[in-house]
Predict the structure.
Amino acid sequence: MDAQKLYEMMKKVQEPKGYYFNADRERTFELLDALIQNKERYGYMGCPCRLLSGDRENDRDIICPCIYSVPDIAEFGSCYCNLYVSRDWNENKIPHAYVPERRPPEKTKF
């Protein structure tokens, strides 16, 4: 799969839920390419902004879109890596604040 196909597929699923791809297409496609690399490397599309363990069960919470993206987008208008954002974020109606890591530190010890 290439990044354009992944973009089209994920867009159809996520936009009806209110989650949009970052309007910065270069950033978006870099992240989509990283998701594809993670799929090839690990067998699942783990968050491109986090270190994956290679254990699908351990990484289940960070398979894109990760479980942290919902509260991140609700609070900050963007997920941790800025792949998924709210409409207001894309339209610069809200500040592009730093999104802190929500994943518990114990999940990253492997």
User: Anything to note?
Assistant: The helical segments are 3-14, 25-42, 56-59, 69-76, 87-90. The first helix runs from residue 3 to 14. The chain is about 40% helix and 5% strand. The longest strand covers residues 20-21.
